[in-house]
Specification:
With 217 residues, the protein is an alpha+beta fold. The protein has two domains: 13-51; 52-216, no CATH class. Helix content is 42%, strand content 20%. The protein has helices spanning 12-34, 44-50, 54-72, 76-85, 87-94, 145-149, 161-180, and strands at residues 74-75, 95-96, 103-112, 119-123, 132-136, 192-200, 206-216. Strands 3-4-5-7-6 form a five-stranded mixed beta barrel. The radius of gyration is 31 Å and the shape is elongated. 29% of the residues are buried. The model is unreliable at 1-7 (pLDDT under 50).
Length: 217
Amino acid sequence: MTSTSSAPKAPAASRRGLYLSLALGVAVLAAIALDTTVVQVGSDADARQQAFSADDYGTSEFPRIQSVVQERAVDAETLATAIAADKDAAIAEYGTPASTGAIMMVTVTGVAGEPRAGVYPLTVEGLPEKQKIRVQTGPAINGTELRDATGDIAFGGFKNQIEYQDAGAGINRAMAAQILTPLDTANLTGKTLTVTGAFRLINPANWMITPVTLEVK
């Protein structure tokens, strides 16, 4: 006589634990699926997630930069006197150190002369005759003075050098759209301008100001 033995069955409690674990796993996977957006490689959504938008960055950062420059700006006569007396001390008090020349913040009122490529010379009372002050009004705004003015926008915050440069251009475009576009910048000659802005201190006798505010009187 042949006898057949069967494998012992798992206790009911163990089976219930297994079923519960499986159910919880399914629930977790379902929740993850609901919270996950599938982005197809090469699609528009994929490009948006990966690309750095210089214009979005500039639009978000310019108001903060403008506020810092306005807060730290000193009148042109005071700044010129300080630079002439002790350049390093003037940078420490009024500027932001940078690798290619400190960024200085200034407020100046002067009469605009004849422009060259959107750059107006200003005649400013109280300054030495040799002191040249110019303000750029576009359409192209060059340089990274606004990007570098606060001292807290650094290369390490970007993916590469291209993004870092593009960030400066985006900030310049945001400034131009907000400050310069509403003005008739092609016809400022002979008018009195009050400008608050930043310039890179390379030649102490020649300042090229990138504005954060510009008032035409």
